[in-house]
Specification:
By secondary structure, the chain is an alpha+beta fold. It has one domain (about 10-145): Jelly Rolls (Sandwich). About 30% of the residues lie in helices and about 45% in strands. A five-stranded antiparallel beta sheet has the order 1-8-3-5-6, covered by helices on one side. The longest helix has 14 residues, at about 60-75.
Length: about 140
């Protein structure tokens, strides 16, 4: 007999800002294991409007490539009405986060995240300062009774 279940956990991470990229794959896997869910979906969402969740091959050269491309897409030096209005100079971080999105949803198969060999789940903090970020890991699925 299979039982439908929803399970969630919030993790808190310290970031450096300026598109700091942190691998959170182990935290997601650990949460899935704690849930006991064997087949379903995991949604990973960062709470806040200046950060993103995505997947990448988390290796130093590609991490630097990603930061470089984010700077080309939405430079820290762009004129921002948000920054002019609020004086916080982080309009670029809101735009980067909006373009990338706050979260992802991935399948769980046989108790494991279905990802590619080199695919890791990452938090990207686009803000212009250090932050404490909350990430919600929400799982829905079935586990064996």
């Amino acid at each position: 007999m299979e039982i439908a279940l929803v399970y969630g956990q919030t993790i808190t991470l310290s970031t450096k800002g300026f598109s700091d990229i942190i691998n959170i794959s182990d935290e997601v896997r650990s949460t899935i294991k704690s849930s006991g869910i064997m087949d379903g979906l995991v949604a990973v969402t960062v709470i806040g409007s200046t950060a993103s969740i995505t997947t990448i091959e988390y290796e130093p050269a590609l991490v630097e490539d990603m930061k470089e491309q984010l700077e080309k897409m939405v430079s820290q030096t762009i004129r921002s009405r948000h920054s002019e209005t609020w004086g916080d100079d982080n309009g670029f971080s809101h735009l980067r986060a909006s373009l990338m999105g706050p979260g992802i949803t991935l399948p769980i198969v046989n108790g494991n995240i279905l990802t590619g060999t080199w695919q890791q789940i990452v938090l990207i903090d686009h803000d212009n300062r250090q932050r404490s970020r909350k990430v919600r890991i929400q799982i829905i699925g079935e586990r064996d009774s």
